[in-house]
Design a protein that fits this description.
By secondary structure, the chain is an alpha+beta fold. It has 4 domains: about 120 residues, 2-Layer Sandwich (Beta-Lactamase); about 70 residues, 2-Layer Sandwich (Beta-Lactamase), CATH 3.30.450; about 70 residues, Helix Hairpins; about 140 residues, Histidine kinase-like ATPase, C-terminal domain (Heat Shock Protein 90, 2-Layer Sandwich), CATH 3.30.565.10. Helices cover about 50% and strands about 20% of the residues. It has a 5-stranded mixed β-sheet, covered by helices on one side. Strands 5-4-7-6 form a 4-stranded antiparallel β-sheet. Strand 6 and strand 7 form a beta hairpin. The longest helix has about 45 residues. The mean pLDDT is about 85.
Length: about 425
């Protein structure tokens, strides 16, 4: 009897160390095999009727079966077997029943652990299936858990991410990206948690800026076309009268030089109007062809030249006497350079507003190096510029657009183009 009690005591301890159903079976069998002459111990989780059919086929063994229940909830059946026809005695059945009650508690614990593990795996799978960076934090934004997308975006391992401020963690590796951050509070009995989603909207914002820039250029083209057509008719009449007056005046007439100056001013107006008309055309309809970058700069700079002159900004253009050729669409490249020049004008104008005594400068240089290039330098406020339309057009032409900050303020924009044979 003392041996039985010791075995039962050892069994109860062993049961609660088990970490699986098979481990419970193994530990119980090892402890009770000798004192109860057991051949095997099995836990059956299937319905009773199925178990009955299985056990009815066994011959030459004595069985003791006990239902495992918790709060009237059936968990399964525990079956002890002997390789003999000698039935289990009453005192043996009482002892094994006590063990069965403990096994029921252990089995319930393991089932709940398995269910919790399954739920955890499902939650982890769902968490990691989200393609955007996602993290769970405390109310001070200290990371408690992240998905794989967050670790990838932040370039961190799980161990390095835990405990970090989520915004500090993701910011260094994503400086060039733009995120829309959504925070969802989760309130538990013990604490308040935050579920934070970082949705990458960089490409969306770029697309919006491209659409906005294209719409602006289309609007400018419409306005320019209307203005140009309204001005062209009276301007053509004025130039015709200037020429008629000049023809009727003798070479030494005192107002002849004034008429010549008036005619030259009218021709300058005509050139500006023609430039507006070029902007109103659909550039995508043009074929790519060899063109001179000096002509592109000449057209793109005409509008900004009027703006700079009106506010006292010095605009200089340096270019070689020989052609600087590349392959492209004339009006598209004019639009790209116009956007760069408009940004330069805005930056310099802002500097003059902040420091009225300073002189404003925009310098344009067209160069013939290994590849043709245009350099635009200004002494503006030096703010970061997003030249979305210009970047897109230059990329389409196989070129490269680079933006550099100047040491004492200002910005340098270098555009490198594909070279073509002269």
């Amino acid at each position: 009897m003392n041996t039985h009690l010791q075995s039962i005591y050892n069994t109860l301890i062993a049961i609660h160390k088990a970490d699986s159903v098979a481990d419970i079976e193994r530990r119980v069998f090892l402890e009770l095999r000798e004192p109860f002459q057991l051949a095997w111990v099995r836990i059956f989780l299937q319905p009773p009727e199925m178990l009955e059919a299985q056990l009815s086929r066994l011959a030459g063994v004595a069985l003791f079966r006990h239902e495992l229940e918790i709060s009237s909830r059936r968990l399964g059946s525990l079956v002890f077997a002997r390789s003999t026809s000698a039935a289990f005695k009453k005192r043996e059945q009482v002892a094994l029943t006590q063990i069965c009650n403990s096994i029921g508690l252990a089995l319930d614990r393991l089932i709940k652990l398995d269910q919790a593990e399954i739920l955890k795996e499902q939650w982890e799978a769902t968490f990691n299936a989200i393609g955007e960076p996602l993290c769970l934090t405390d109310e001070n934004f200290q990371i408690m858990h992240t998905n794989k997308a967050f670790l990838s975006a932040a370039n961190l391992t799980p161990a390095r991410a835990i405990g970090k401020n989520c915004f500090d963690a993701i910011q260094p590796a994503t400086k060039a990206r733009e995120f829309d951050v959504t925070t969802q509070p989760i309130v538990t009995d013990d604490e308040k948690l935050l579920l934070i989603l970082f949705r990458d909207v960089t490409e969306q914002k770029k697309m919006e800026k491209r659409i906005f820039a294209s719409a602006k250029m289309a609007e400018l083209g419409t306005i320019g076309s209307s203005i140009a057509h309204d001005i062209n008719n009276p301007l053509g009449g004025m130039l015709s009268f200037f020429q008629l007056i000049k023809m009727d005046l003798p070479a030494d007439h005192p107002i002849r030089d004034d008429i010549i100056e008036m005619e030259a001013a009218g021709l300058r107006c005509k050139a500006i109007v023609e430039n507006l008309l070029k902007f109103s055309r659909r550039p995508e309809a043009e074929p790519a062809e060899p063109l001179d970058l000096r002509d592109v700069i000449r057209q793109a700079s005409q509008i900004v030249e009027l703006q700079t002159r009106s506010v006292g900004i010095e605009l200089t253009i340096e270019q070689p006497k020989e052609q600087v050729k590349t392959l492209g669409q004339f009006n598209l490249l004019s639009q790209a350079l116009s956007e760069v020049l408009q940004h330069a004008y805005a930056a310099v104008s802002e500097r003059l507003r902040q420091k009225p005594g300073d002189g404003g400068k925009i310098e344009i240089a067209v160069r013939r190096l290994e590849h043709p290039e245009i350099l635009i330098v200004d002494n503006g406020i030096g703010a970061r510029r997003d030249l979305t339309l210009a970047q897109q057009i230059v990329d389409q032409h196989g070129g490269r657009l680079e933006i550099f900050s100047q040491p004492n303020g200002g910005t340098q924009v270098k555009i490198v183009f594909l070279a073509v044979d002269n």
